[in-house]
Amino acid sequence: MTPVFDVGYRLVAVALSVCCARQAWHGLIARKIRFVDDDWLDWSRWASQVFHRDTMPIRYWMQLSGTAISSLLCLAAAFIGWWQPNG
Q1: In the structure, what pLDDT confidence band is assigned to residue 16 with cuts at 50, 70 and 90?
Q2: DSSP code, position 45
Q3: Domain for residue 22, yes or no?
Q4: Would 27 disulfide with which of 33, 55, 58, 76, CB 3.0-4.6 Å?
Q5: How many domains does the chain have?
Q6: Within 13 Å, how many C-alpha atoms sit on residue 3's CB side?
């Protein structure tokens, strides 16, 4: 793999990690988290789902933990990179 692709892969992974971490943090502070971003799926009825901590705690914690785990996975991908063993 060329160094340009490796650097680009790491930058995209860091950007996704920061985006997911910010979404999880704001969801934790505001006590509500959005299922998906409605800018991408404006036509979908699922795009505007908001899970509140008090009214839907199971869905809230599932979405929050999934967002936090995806942030950690993207951060791990940024550190490891596109590693391919020689041999």
Answers
A1: very high
A2: G
A3: yes
A4: 33
A5: 1
A6: 0
